[in-house]
Amino acid sequence: LTSNIQFRNRIDDSRNKIFPTIIFTTSSFLQVEMKGISGPIEFKEGRRIQFKLDLLKLRQHSLVKVGEWRPGAGVNVTDTAAFFEPGSANVTLLVITILEQPYVMLKSRGNFSGNARYEGFCIDLLKEIAHMVGFGYRIELVPDGKYGVYDYETGEWNGIVRQLMDKKADLAVGSMTINYARESVIDFTKPFMNLGISILFKVPTSHPARLFSFMNPLAIQIWLYVLAAYVLVSVMMFVVARISPYEWNNPHPCHAGSEIVENQFSLANSFWFTIGTLMQQGSDLNPKATSTRIVGGIWWFFTLIIISSYTANLAAFLTVERMITPIENAEDLASQTDIAYGTLDSGSTMTFFRDSMIETYKKMWRFMENKKPSVFVPTYEEGIQRVLQGDYAFLMESTMLDYIVQRDCNLTQIGGLLDSKGYGIATPMGSPWRDKISLAILELQEKGEIQMLYDKWWKSPGDTCMRTEKGKESKANSLGVDNIGGVFVVLLCGLAFAVLIAIFEFCYNTRRNMPAERKRKTCPKTFESKCTSVVDDFPSFFFFFLTFDACCRVSRRAEVSKSTVLPQMVPAFFIRSLLFFRFRAKFETQRAPISTPACSDSLQGISQSVQQQQQQQTQQQQQQQQQQQQQANQQQESLCSEMARELCRALRCHASSRRRRACEKCSTHVLGYPPDNPTATPLNGMRSQRSSLGVPTVELPPHVHMHHHAPPPHDYDGT
């Protein structure tokens, strides 16, 4: 076989390359047809036809095809960058991008053309990388304005990814997210920025400050519990102090044998001790017994915790503007349907929710996919406008979100990051520029130049929204009347209440200490004079009853209208007439043995002349008269007392309860009515107790009743 093979060199003048040609002379071998690695193996006139040769370039781990050669067509280079070394400035790459703040933007001022029309973070980054790697570039916008997403219905990619797959561009810069789906069809450099998905939402409208916002640190239930604890501890202190013998003390220490003891913890003092401790002011009351000290100590510990907790939270509730948002994180967003939410159409964020296996994100994707109208937006600007309109949350990359909230105070970020990913520069599959650009990105990150570019394009000059720590502190220190005005309202109400109590105490004390003449102004002198010397004539004696009835009416402070005067006067007239004749007959029978009527000192029933005469008598005559008077008093009642009792008997069935009580008040000053006479008829169905009313019994003169003990002067207070 080798003897039949002849070698001949053929020089290709057009390519300046030598290709060896093997001519087979054996007829059987020339008829072979088969498919090989370089194409179909077929010979014509002893030469191979219809074949191609691949141009390969050695990479780090493999050989990469960079072109091919065919007979007649010559060399076809598919990767022009493979034949250029770094530093050669005569290479111009086609770079595609999308307009998006602050990555790529059109200059708003001036007339520019070419690459000078664009500005932004990615434009500055591209300049630095091109200078370090050594290439020129020409920027164009992607036709459909999309980053690229895989369509399961058509089985095709769109946007930037489609352009790179078709090798219609060399590079793609912008907020191009690196993910698994894109990495399988195109290449990415090292990420120049790390980020995640976050939620953009409208800042909720702050509620107006409440007047009693100082009560916000504690819930309403805690305030009620504290009030209940205050009442309970006060009552408990009172009860324990009463039970413990060590809280009873002698008010007069100099008299060791005194049977009088007192307790400092009255009910009012117990409440005062508890409120003083709660307000951290203390009081002049100190428990002495072990039991009361335990109650006080437990209460002090309780107030320590409550006051400390209230003080710690008061500053935060008053100085920090608390925004109540309807959502706090992605879980809150997924669990409701009132607020719509969506993503950028044909973006990596939409792909993340579509392909996620997390139940919360799957639920969110079903909501977004079925929501009508569509919640997906073609651009970030449209998504931001929908957020500002309200009831819409926009899911987007955190870096873009930071840029927006720095410039619009009506927008804010809700929750943290939903995932972690990065932005990179995209290249066609197997591009030789990927590694060179990746090395340049790492170098820029180590030098801090990428962070400087971030601060240049993200940080808003002036910080108009006061999102820095310094701005927050300056805003937190401002307090107005709307925040703590309720404290002044409580102060004014307390002062007004104290003034009302002071007026009440003044009036009560004045009424209690009023002189007898002013206090009993309803019992005129006419009543006393008629009781002292009862005349025989009908007009004077009848006027006595009218005066006594007027005493009862005025004592009860009853205002009788004109419509009720006449109906009451008719039966009252007959009652008084009957009483007159009864008392007149009885007076005639008792007038002989009784020299003077037995009236009380308070009614001045004994004249001054009789008292002077009695004082001049001898001791023996006084004793005899006293014995006689005692025997007479045992047999009969005082005339004035019987008059008052009989009148009240008659009025019981015709007067109101208030009138009967007034009658009782006026008649209790008469000796022998009714407690001084056990046989007297009780008023209102029960026997009156003057001690409970605060009215002392008035003693008769010594010649009338010697068995009475004269009490200290005391005026009836009328209560």
TrEMBL record:
Its main location: membrane. L-glutamate binds at T177, R182, S348, T349, E397. The chain crosses the membrane at residues 222-243, 298-320, 484-504. It holds the Pfam family Lig_chan. It comes from the Eukaryota. One of its GO terms (molecular function) is ligand-gated monoatomic ion channel activity. It is a multi-pass membrane protein. Disulfide bonds join C409-C465. Residues 92-460 form the Ionotropic glutamate receptor C-terminal domain. The record marks R354 as: Interaction with the cone snail toxin Con-ikot-ikot. Keywords: Cell membrane, Cell projection, Coiled coil, Disulfide bond, Glycoprotein, Ion channel, Ion transport, Ligand-gated ion channel, Membrane, Postsynaptic cell membrane, Receptor, Signal, Synapse, Transmembrane, Transmembrane helix, Transport. GO terms for cellular component: postsynaptic membrane; presynaptic membrane. The record marks I327 as: Crucial to convey clamshell closure to channel opening. It is found in: Postsynaptic cell membrane; Presynaptic cell membrane. Belongs to the glutamate-gated ion channel (TC 1.A.10.1) family. This is Glutamate receptor ionotropic, kainate 2. It comes from Frieseomelitta varia.
